[in-house]
Amino acid sequence: MLIHGWSCDERYWRKQIPELANQYRVVTLDLAGHGQSGLRDDYPITAFAQDVAAVVERLQLKQVALVGHSMGGPVALESARLLPHRVAGVVAVDSFHTGFPWPQDEAGMTPFLTQFDKDFHGAAQKMVRDMFGIGADPELIEWVVGDMSQAPKTVGMSAMRHLFQWHRDPATAFDAVAAPIAHINAKGRFGQTPPLSLRNNEEIFWIEGVGHFVPMEAPQRFSETLEMILQGWKFPRRVN
């Protein structure tokens, strides 16, 4: 199951779906407030996880690999907590161990959110543009910047606030997940690669020369890395 990030939707996996679908059953979804899904009043990470769990239950999926990009990483972890006997593993894509300075209290969070409250479109454009690697395709940059900055302000603000709050204590979610957790990260996007403190069920894979949107900026390298992870878990291929 492929889980998109903040102000994105299932289209952001379009470069992975055809190749993955040759070997696995692939499920995508638009989280609430994103893409074609309906709106709600608030957008906490735990509610997004309930969206994922509802799809897994509805489709009666027995063994699931949850692949989450950016905000989708925390969503995948929280989903794994809800589905302990169905989740074979979690792949977090540039979600953790990035060196990003997550604000740890309201005082640190307020300045960041204030700029989005004053000019959501402009602030989103600047933030998203700065997330790309130096050699990224200009057409890809303009499409992603234009698309993400058009997200509904109420959805984007709520989801961002809850994401910041969630990152104050990510250890609680990590400690609750016994399944293997793999990270696919852009290397050194915020300067030096941060020192790692990985649990026994974690491993990390670095992709160089890309920015935050790893699956879109380096689709082939990302797909090869994901396949290596899935086969390391002995995740079953689809039987045709």
TrEMBL record:
InterPro entries: AB_hydrolase_1, AB_hydrolase_fold, AB_hydrolase_sf
Residue ranges annotated for the AB hydrolase-1 domain, each copy included: 2-105
GO cellular component term of the entry, any: membrane
Designated name of the protein: Putative carboxylesterase
